[in-house]
Design a protein that fits this description.
This is GGDEF domain-containing protein. Helix content is 44%, strand content 20%. By secondary structure, the chain is α/β, with parallel strands linked by helices. Bound molecules: ligand C2E and calcium ion (3 copies). Ligand C2E binds next to strand 2, helix 3, helix 4, strand 4 and strand 6.
Length: 269
């Protein structure tokens, strides 16, 4: 009876119940976010050794009418679980390509590339390659200025299909980055097979890169791994001048983080 009471307690836990209700109402609002034009794109610069901007990572935000600006960490998983990510991802892709095409008409930005985050559901969709090619063709954005960021866990299953899709897009000029590198399974054998261009070193290895601990060793190893595979290494989450200097000394050539700029609304750039 006691155990049953405990079960009952957990089922009717008011904290849990309100969390479930909050998720349900968030989902209801999320279904309306695209038609109500509440999604916005922010961009964060990726710089070279001199600090010059080379690229922008496009980061999604949701301008919720009452909750304020909602970060992707709070709604991407929900969008994936409920089949909303295809429409949202397509919107990100098309808006980014339109912006890239506009950058091409501005001499100060015509060499910039833009990186977008692709969800596993998008990559697995049979129409993915065509959706990317169509977005490029319809906006006039050059394919070589678009980068797609994938994560390791997405590349562990359906490997041959994934390689085929990546190869078709790469033949068109699209580049690929492996995001959050070092946090996943990091099987080195699959790395060689994948048609990648960049490894993005997860920011957890950058935090203490200028210190005495192991993070410097890991960052150094990832950078030399990237170099020996012919990939470029991008350091994420660079927050201080010390980290920037340490990474340059390790042979890294591309950097992203609050030290260079926070994500800003694309419309304000
Ligand atoms: P991510 O791809 O690893 O993006 C980098 C995250 O680190 C961003 O968080 C960015 O604001 C944050 N960041 C950048 N520099 C620094 C720094 O110096 N220090 C610290 N502490 N953080 C920094 P954000 O914008 O909240 O995005 C979180 C995640 O949401 C992204 O992680 C990405 O996985 C996902 N995401 C964002 N936009 C999209 C999208 O359009 N589609 C999909 N599928 N996922 C997205
Ligand atoms: Ca990313
Ligand atoms: Ca990342
Ligand atoms: Ca991440």
């Amino acid at each position: 009876a006691k155990a049953q009471g405990r079960n009952r307690l957990s089922v009717f836990d008011p904290g849990l119940e309100s969390a479930i209700l909050a998720q349900a109402s968030l989902l209801q609002d999320l279904r309306q976010a695209l038609p109500r034009r509440e999604l916005v794109l922010h961009a964060q610069p990726i710089v070279d050794e001199t600090g010059a901007v080379r690229s922008q990572e496009i980061l999604l935000r949701w301008a919720h009418p009452t909750r304020g600006l909602v970060s992707p960490g709070e709604f991407i998983a929900l969008a994936e679980q409920h089949g909303l990510i295809l429409d949202i991802g397509n919107w990100v892709l098309r808006r980014t390509c339109a912006w890239l095409a506009a950058c091409g008409r501005d001499p100060a930005r015509s060499a910039w590339t833009a990186a977008i985050n692709v969800s596993v559901r998008q990559l697995r969709d049979p129409g993915f390659v065509d959706a990317v090619l169509r977005a490029l063709a319809e906006t006039g954005a050059p394919a070589h200025r678009l980068r797609l960021e994938l994560t390791e866990s997405m590349l562990l299953t359906e490997v041959d299909e994934t390689i085929a899709k990546m190869s078709r897009l790469r033949e068109a000029g699209v580049r690929f980055a492996l995001d959050d590198f070092g946090t996943g399974y990091s099987s080195l054998s699959y790395l060689r097979r994948l048609p990648l261009d960049e490894l993005k070193i997860d920011r957890s290895f950058i935090a203490d890169v200028a210190g005495e601990g192991n993070d410097g060793v890991i960052a150094r190893t990832i950078i030399s791994l990237a170099n020996s595979l012919g990939l470029s290494a991008v350091a994420e989450g660079v927050e201080t001048a010390e980290q920037f200097e340490a990474l340059k000394a390790l042979g890294c050539h591309a950097f992203q983080g609050y030290h260079f700029g926070r994500p800003l609304p694309l419309a304000d750039l």
